[in-house]
Amino acid sequence: MKFDTIIIGGGLSGMAAGISLAKKGQKCLMVSAGQSALHFFSGSIDAYGCEGSAVGSVSSLPSCHPYSKMGKDTLIELTPVAKSLLADLGLDFVNNDPINHYRMTPVGLMKPTWLTMREYVRGSDVGQLERWGKVALVGIKGYLDFNTSFISQNLDRQGINAVEVEVTTPELQKLRTNPSEMRSTNIAKTLVGDALKAFAAEVKAACPEDVDVYLLPAVFGIEDDGPVKALQAEFDKPVHLIATMPPSVPGIRMQTLMRRKFQALGGTFMLGDAVVSGKFEGGRLVSVRTQNHGDMDFEADNFVLATGNFMTHGLTSDRNGVYEAALGVDVDYLADRKEWTKSNIFDDQPFMSFGVATDDNLHAKKDGMVIENLYATGSVLSGFNGIKEGSSTGVSLMSGLYVANQITKTIGR
Amino acid sequence: MTDETIKQYDVIVIGGGITGAGTARDCAMRGLKTLLVERYDLTTGATGRNHGLLHSGARYAVTDHESAEECISENMILRSIARHCVEETDGLFITLPEDDLAYQATFIESCLRAGIKAEAIDPAEARILEPAVNKDLIGAVKVPDGAVDPFRLTMANVYDARMHGADVLTYHEVVGMEKDGDRVVGVKLLNHHNHQTKIVHAAITINAAGIWGQKIVQMAGAQIGMFPAKGALLVFGHRVNNVVINRCRKPANADILVPGDTVCVIGTTSDRVPFDTVDDMRVTPEEVDVLLREGEKLAPCLATTRILRAYAGVRPLVAADNDPSGRNISRGIVCLDHEERDGIPGFITITGGKLMTYRLMAEWATDMACRKLGIDKKCATATTPLYGSELKAGETRGKKTYSIGEKVAFRAAEGRHGTLSKDVPKADIYDNALVCECEQVTVGEVKYAIENLNVHNMLNLRRRTRVAMGTCQGELCMCRAAGILAKSEGNAAKAQVDLVEFVNERWHGMYPVGWADTLCEGQFTSMIYEGLCGLNVFDKK
Fold it and tell me: B24 exposed, middle or buried (CB, 10 Å; 0-12, 13-18, 19+)?
């Protein structure tokens, strides 16, 4: 089978590339194992976790960093492209460009970020939260992945005294009969339509009447944001959501919307499959094979490798080395296993920066040779610690768009 | 935990490992007013850092007849008094092509002489009995080895001691000995929670502090020559074997693979280490390599089995008196009467020995204390089941079977707390919500542990319930359990800091085996607790 571009990996980065290319009329195939890092989404896209301007930080990054390779000017060019891609999906993100704003984490702490879903708690600074007045922090009885004690404690540190309430409804009670069913995705599937209205009524009944703002866990709207809007319509005061521990309902929604968009644009999406090998010839990748399709060769002019890092099995390792899982392309890592990790998990762990070796245009390398039609994008890239920097989602989105542009340019030539 | 209502105790036992817990139980059962003190948590030392092997004694049969006899005797006792802490798995001593098969006859003869039922079986039968065993084996001997959960066994002894009137203070460190002339009359305690000190008096003080007991002896004004011997072990992600696998040769590195609960453990190495390292044992890459190389010979599938974590403990080896070089090391039980030995009345040290012989050690120490107090009461710990292990009339300990639809979490709690699992709240559907999927720990069990099992933090909770000890090493259950702790203690600020420390405690066992799935889990953990939550701001560097 022959495609214009084959995208390996269906997370944020692969989707950004795939949707962009499909929009240009390319015949695309996307091979996705299923879950991606979006299942752990915070509700925000972090460009670079610093105070002030994220893009302003790019010039101080080392040359191996994906942002440095793409270049500051290109990143600035791609910024409106990224925003319109999200808006096209029906995702309503707000920003405070060119300055970072703050998202509230699942434990109530504030972290700098770039784009945040409109329904989420956010702040231009800590002061914005103070203007709320009387705050109700609403938990769901038996739902353990929304830690109201910690949130309340950290709101308190910011001078906000929240009233903690816990609610349930008969529909949620039914979920409880299986001990492991009280998870975000199941709640999201339950809290729609009349069940959602009943839930809102319970929340109002449980909270003091003079509440100015309601804070709820982000467990609404797994298919689209209809339930979020319906929930907000039930209240005459603002309702803001706080990210929960995984799985992330808004993240799954985002993944679903992107997949639908890709398919609506004519993209072929193979779910639950994985690329297991590639045929390289004369500095080019000719075709790939997948787990589910045996000896069928999938050919393409260009390939995008967007399989993520260790966590999503884009990278694997054993006692002797670190490997790229799908195609066996070159990986930048430290040869001495002892140097991969440090004893404090919160230190800058060297293994976090391991990843696929690329040239400055994000072409992957194999046996030291640049593969001119294979691009690496997102968390599979080497040279940055996305968790430490607060740049994982930003690198994924921007490098996905960057690679799509590179491919479009080669076609133009 | 307990209010100080008695100013004067008969006995203070120092050390919340298995020896101290067993000694406190024995003392309390003989009617002595007993206080158990532990500087950190129960099982923090060597007790929580070994194989969890219920030795049959076979390992020592050839080289140490006395230890072998003690082991088989205590093995049989633990099967009846601590049945909820023991798994009757049996064990195999296998001979591989590179080993001398002639050793097997010597081995069996020595076992039988020590009273250990050792039976040579056909290698083909061994392969059926334990499918994970190295298929190349040329000989096999079946022995009554088993598995014992040291966390559970220690907690059961502490609980039992409390039920017999003992007081227990964890996070209370002995910082000085109170003396009246030469006599030890009590201890000075530092409370690590509120940083206050207090003095408690007792007629007898028993030092059961393991390797840390050397310092206690020094505080009392005497000397003892102890030699820390580090033993490193690896925990695998699932239970590859159901029968303990040993090598049939002279004891060496990494030649025992023990199944326990949902995992299995290979170990151990043995190296003398400096005294100043005993509080922070880390496993080196070289030790990991040795453990894997040797472990794969016992069960080749270990080569492709996920390693959950690495850990190391310190054996308290004691030099014979008048031998400061430590060449003449005893691995047996050492019970010192410091009145006789050093002219310090009121002070006893119980050390050496092993997890397996803790009850016998406790008996010796308690016998000595009773003699000094003029109390004539016989030891009953060999025949009285621990709380949680009482047999109902006609009940036998059969193999556990789980059928689909049964409440697996209830069975898991029963496995962990024995008959005491009746006290785990389960009437309410919220109490039945799962905190930890890997180990099937419910909200009810967490609440039970917080209320009844000396739990102040996440680490305590893990040791009492197995929360975060399974394949995911606590990815999501850590935060859930921390939320319940925060609510029950009404202190979210402390619970957050505690959670961050706990995330790092899990990593300490993971980074020495930081490749494959462990690296993947480590990245996932960082992503959640640092990337998503931002909790790294509470890390105390």
Answer: buried
Contacts of B98 (CB under 8 A, 6+ apart): none
Q: Using CA atoms, how far apart are residues B242 and B256, in angstroms rounded to an integer? A: 13
DSSP per residue over A184-237, as a string?
Answer: HHHHHHHSSHHHHHHHHHHHHHHS-TT-SEEEEES---SSSSHHHHHHHHT-SS
Quote the DSSP letter at residue B406: S
pLDDT tens digits, B208-242: 999 999 999 999 999 998 889 999 999 999 999 99
- Compute the distance between CA of residue B301 and CA of residue B403 in angstroms, rounded to an integer: 28
Query: How buried is residue B481: exposed, middle or buried, by Cβ count under 10 Å (0-12/13-18/19+)?
Result: buried
Contacts of B80 (CB under 8 A, 6+ apart): B383, B385
- pTM, to two decimals: 0.92
Q: Which amino acid is at B143?
A: V
Picking from A200, A148, A147, A144, the residue whose alpha carbon sits closest to that of residue A169 is A200
- For chain A, positions 138-177, list CB contacts with chain B under 8 A: 141-142, 144-145, 147-150, 152-153, 173, 176-177
Partner B contacted by A50 (CB < 8 A): no
What's the whole-number mean pLDDT along residues B284-296? 94
Nearest 10 degrees: CA dihedral of B484, B488, B490, B492? Answer: -20
The residue to which tokens 């299942």 are assigned: A39
**Which strand (E) or helix (H) includes residue B156?**
helix B150-163
Determine the Cα angle at A257 with ends A252 and A260, to 5°: 125
Please tell me which residue of chain B has the smallest CA distance to A180. B434
CB atoms near residue A25 (< 10 Å): 11
Same domain, B467 and B445: yes
Q: Buried b vs exposed e over A131-168: b needs ≥16 C-beta within 10 Å?
A: ebebbbbbbbbbbbbbbbbbbbbbbeeeebebebbebb
The DSSP call for residue B65 is H
Amino acid B188: pLDDT: 96
User: Does B267 share its domain with B348?
Assistant: no
Whether B258 is in a domain gets the answer: yes
CA distance B353 to A27: 72
Which residue has 């404690």 as its token pair?
A153
Is omega for the bond preceding A98 within 30 degrees of 0, making it cis?
yes
- Buried b / exposed e along B5-19 (16+ C-beta atoms within 10 A): ebeebbbbbbbbbbb
Q: Under 8 Å CB-to-CB from B192, ≥6 apart: which residues?
A: B39, B40, B171, B172, B173
Chain B partners of A179 at a C-beta cutoff of 8 Å?
409, 432-434, 442
Place A158 in a pLDDT band, splitting at 50, 70 and 90.
Answer: confident
B296 within domain boundaries: yes
Among the residue ranges B234-243, B317-326, B524-533, the one predicted with the least confidence is B317-326
Co-location of B186 and B304 in the same domain: no
In the predicted model, what is the mean pLDDT of residues A384-390? Answer: 97
Segment B120-129 long-range contacts (CB within 8 Å, at least 24 positions apart)? B126/B92, B126/B94, B129/B90, B129/B92, B129/B243
Q: How far is A333 from chain B (nearest CA, A)?
A: 12
Name which of A64, A48, A20 is nearest A360 in CA terms.
A64
DSSP 8-state class, residue B320: P
**What is the number of structural domains in chain B?**
3
Nearest to A352 among B523, B533, B534 (CB): B523
Residue B407 has pLDDT above 80, yes or no: no
Q: Report the Cα A227 to chain-centroid distance in Å.
A: 21
Domain extent, residue B357, equals 8-46+151-225+326-373
What distance in Å separates the CA atoms of residue B441 and residue B115, rounded to the nearest whole number?
Answer: 40
Residues B300 and B165 in one domain: no
State the pLDDT at residue B440: 87
Contact B309, B236 (CB under 8 A): no
